[in-house]
Amino acid sequence: MLKTRHAALIGVPALALALVPGVADATPASGVSATTLSQQTVDGRTYTLKQITIQPGGGTGWHYHNGPVYGLVLKGTLTHSDSDCATDGVYSSGDTIAERAGADHVHIGRNLGSTPVILDALYVDPAGSALTVDAPNPGCDFQ
Q1: What would the pLDDT profile of 126-136 be if each residue is shown by its tens digit?
Q2: N or C: which end of the chain has fewer CB within 10 A?
Q3: CA dihedral for 22, 143, 12, 33, sign (positive or negative)
């Protein structure tokens, strides 16, 4: 995880969280909605920019990404945990986040606060792949 305070990430605000239906053992997202702001495929890579809202008490469900995701928190506080059940980041308005690709980077994003989390997320995926892949809870006492 990389955390920095910037107004934008390389000119494009972003962050990654789950919104694609998954396998039967996956943990479902709760209180999450998203709007696609832009999508374009260039040289075998699809760049998808979404604005994501996570309501208080909501979360993305456990998941991973097929490509890297870059984000900017616009409002609220996002708590991010990895598959070791450790909180690996708490991101507030103005913070950026970068998530690595692959099944070995399972994680969850949760809104433990009292106001909605709003963030922009840029997904950089191989063309034709899912934005997120749902995963089962790795044994943590939260989801």
Answers
A1: 999 999 999 99
A2: N
A3: positive
CA distances for 47 relative to 20, 67, 84, 102, 133, angstroms: 16, 10, 29, 17, 17
Take residue 31 and report the two structure tokens written for it.
Answer: 């209180």
Q: Side chain identity at 44, as an amino acid letter?
A: G
Question: Tokens representing 125?
Answer: 């995926």
Task: Name the one residue in this structure whose structure tokens are 């495929």.
Answer: 41
Q: Hunting for tokens 């949760």 — which residue is that?
A: 110
CA distance 123 to 131: 7
The Cα 34–Cα 27 span in angstroms is 18
> Could you tell me the two tokens for 78?
């996002």
| Structure-token match 């089962």, residue found | 136
110 close to 79: Cβ distance less than 8 angstroms? yes
